[in-house]
Specification:
single chain, alpha+beta, eight-stranded antiparallel barrel
């Protein structure tokens, strides 16, 4: 599956939530803590290839994701993505560690998710700021940005790992205290 997304930094979500309500967006998930572990392997060198192997725990859901090298139009992040749902987060983490994978980065965020006309709109609170992540096709993303009074030039195509590095280059963990 191809993932096309942008992130829009915001001070808070009050205005965005008001617009989502006005546009009759459907709330898919209430605000939930999300834990993420990005793995790498000394032989596979995923980070060098710009690939992501991620374990995610979002409420009761556990998802293993593989993302390929980021490509796409300026301002957008586009990756091929494969997701697998599984039951036990800690056991899956152990499987990867026993196979020689190591935790390259750990991050947390609080995510609230909406759906609107084929778009997935996530409101992400992170230790390094608040972001509206908009995922869908190019045209729908651009149309939504216009509706909320934003321009593609205001968005980011950075990952949360990359955003965290801007704020703190030493730590391998982005988490709430």
């Amino acid at each position: 599956m191809k993932e096309i997304e942008v992130k829009l930094p915001v001070k808070d979500f009050k205005e965005v939530k008001g617009l989502l309500k006005k546009l009759k967006a459907k709330k898919k998930f209430k605000e939930t803590l999300e834990r993420n572990i990005l793995f790498d392997h000394k032989s596979l060198k995923l980070k060098e290839r710009d690939w992501v192997l991620r374990l995610r725990q979002f409420g009761e859901k556990n998802i293993l994701t593989l993302k390929t090298k980021s490509i796409g139009r300026k301002g957008f992040k586009v990756r091929e993505e494969v997701n697998i749902f599984f039951e036990d987060f800690e056991k899956m983490k152990e499987v990867f560690q026993r196979m020689g994978f190591f935790e390259a980065f750990y991050y947390e965020k609080y995510r609230e998710e909406y759906e609107l006309n084929g778009l997935s709109i996530s409101l992400d609170k992170t230790p390094v700021g608040n972001y509206v992540e908009i995922e869908g096709d190019y045209k729908k993303i651009e149309n939504f940005l216009k509706k909320i009074g934003a321009k593609i030039e205001e968005t980011l195509s950075l990952s949360y790992f990359q955003l965290f590095r801007i704020f703190n280059k030493k730590s391998k963990r982005m988490q709430f205290k």
